[in-house]
Amino acid sequence: MSKERGRVLVTGGAGYIGSVVAARLVETGHRVTVLDDLSTGFREAVPSGAEFVKGRIQEAAEVLDPSYAVVMHFAAVAEVGESMVNPEKYWDTNVLGTFALLAAMRGAGVRKLVASSTCAVYGEPTAGVISTRTPTAPVNPYGASKLAVDHMIAGESAACGLAAVSLRYFNVAGAVASHGERHDPESHLIPLVLQVAQGRREAISIYGDDYATPDGTCVRDYIHVSDLADAHLLALDAAAPGEHLVCNLGNGNGFSVREVIAVARKVTGHPIPEVVVSRRPGDPATLVASSARARERLGWVPRRSNLSEMIQDAWDFAQATAVKESTGH
Ligand SMILES: NC(=O)c1ccc[n+]([C@@H]2O[C@H](COP(=O)([O-])OP(=O)(O)OC[C@H]3O[C@@H](n4cnc5c(N)ncnc54)[C@H](O)[C@@H]3O)[C@@H](O)[C@H]2O)c1
Ligand SMILES: O=c1ccn([C@@H]2O[C@H](COP(=O)(O)OP(=O)(O)O[C@H]3O[C@H](CO)[C@H](O)[C@H](O)[C@H]3O)[C@@H](O)[C@H]2O)c(=O)[nH]1
């Protein structure tokens, strides 16, 4: 557990991953302020015990002051498909937004940052698992914008002594208590599959079955959001001033789209009909992590690596959310 007990600004703390980490920070005794514009997040996802400021990261200077010890930066636009058709939104929010956040941190003398990065920065590596030594070569504007952010953070660390950690998540899944994946419209595989099981969709569309993978569908490395929260707390004290530490976070196991659907059938007991449609532009065939550096530098060990448990937790969250929506509370 971190020794840090100063104020923490959590950008994007009304979103899926940010709200889970904000809740964990509150539980472990940190004073948390969430800054979120609610563009994709939900006010009710902000944990009780955290202060909430509705606003954009572009205006972070209005919130940050020297009482903050660290910023945890989750706020972003993060849809691969959308980034292919609306790339300027990705440069605007992810790059210009983070640029403004870093300037605000400099102005307020906040010298620690833990930021969300993504496996999308690696593009489509041809061989083996992806380590932090794998060359970065994004194949969509989302990944390109997040790589630009990582470069910006590296420069800030070198020039201004920022202690920074970029955590490159692979495919985040699962839920923790009342915090889970909830986007409107939803685009991610597991919540969509579960919407079929709930009767909210007729079938799950498989985006292509002609990839060079064992069953022809895309392979991803799914990581439980609770394990991600562990890594964020460990990251609080991991970098030295002037250092930009980059770690991958995944389990090192790949599951195809068809395997995910098969596990979801077992978890939900629903037949979950599938239909194969054309590929989604910008999707790499296979993304599987080596998290060796996270283990070495953060002492991080994933504890919830079972896909069936991740989908069970996501299912419990989806069912509880459906009840809340139907009863209004
Ligand atoms: N979900 C994944 O599998 C995954 C994988 C790799 C990386 N990531 C990264 O993790 C982070 C969180 O992703 P998520 O899945 O929780 O997404 P999310 O959409 O649930 O959360 C993002 C939050 O940021 C807020 N936000 C967006 N633009 C903002 C702005 N300009 N100012 C203030 N708030 C703003 C949104 O309202 C939302 O609450 C992102 O940086 C994303 O790139 C996610
Ligand atoms: O209805 C769907 C939705 C998704 N998929 C497939 O399922 C896999 C997973 O797709 P998601 O949309 O759930 O996740 P992505 O792999 O596109 O994206 C995730 O990983 C990215 C990095 O590649 C980003 O970090 C992003 O934020 C994060 O959600 C992909 O092969 C996609 O083609 C389908 O077949 N049908």
TrEMBL record:
Keywords assigned: Carbohydrate metabolism, Isomerase, NAD
GO molecular function (one): UDP-glucose 4-epimerase activity
Family matches, as InterPro entries: Epimerase_deHydtase, NAD(P)-bd_dom_sf, UDP_G4E
Pfam families on file: Epimerase
Enzyme class: isomerase
Family: Belongs to the NAD(P)-dependent epimerase/dehydratase family.
Catalysed transformations (reactions): UDP-alpha-D-glucose = UDP-alpha-D-galactose
Name listed for the protein in its UniProt record: UDP-glucose 4-epimerase
